[in-house]
Amino acid sequence: MGGVPILVVEDDPPGAKLAALLLTQHGANVRIAPNAEEALKVLEDFHPRVVVLDLVLPRMGGLLLAQYIKTDTRLRDTVIVAATVVSGPEVERVVREAGCAAYVSKPINTETFAATVAGCLETSS
């Protein structure tokens, strides 16, 4: 993931730091936003190839942010990987409908997280 710009949107500071560390260790250029509103500000001048997005955020939820990203002409090709404590076929359907390429369960698996994100990048190219 050499130099790939990635935005991690996560309101849990330890979780955000862990995700950023794992991606940075694989060469990504990572920024963190603690909520959807801050993510929108970051997205004004940072155009990530990937957004790792917590679905449960204060105020504006992750699914709404995903839908916004997918309707913005500058950002619509951004790969979104949802992160959630909930799993199952219904969650997969909802995140796909919101424009997410995949979802990972939280807490994130430190062994597979970066590979999952990299795999989403490969299939989107």
CATH architecture call:
3-Layer(aba) Sandwich
Outline type:
globular
Radius of gyration: 13 Å
Assembly context of the chains? single chain
* Structural class by sheet pairing and helices: alpha/beta
The CATH first-level class comes to Alpha Beta
SS strand fraction: 15-25%
| H/E series | EHEHEHEHEH
Largest sheet: 5 strands, parallel
Low-confidence segments, ≥5 residues, pLDDT <50?
none
Task: Walk me through this protein's architecture.
It is globular and about 30 Å long. The protein has a 5-stranded parallel beta sheet, sandwiched between helices. 40% of the residues lie in helices and 20% in strands. It has 125 residues and is α/β, with parallel strands linked by helices. It contains 5 helices and 5 strands; from the N terminus they run E-H-E-H-E-H-E-H-E-H. It has a single domain, classed as Response regulator (Rossmann fold), CATH 3.40.50. The mean pLDDT is 94. The longest helix is centred in the first third of the chain and has 12 residues.
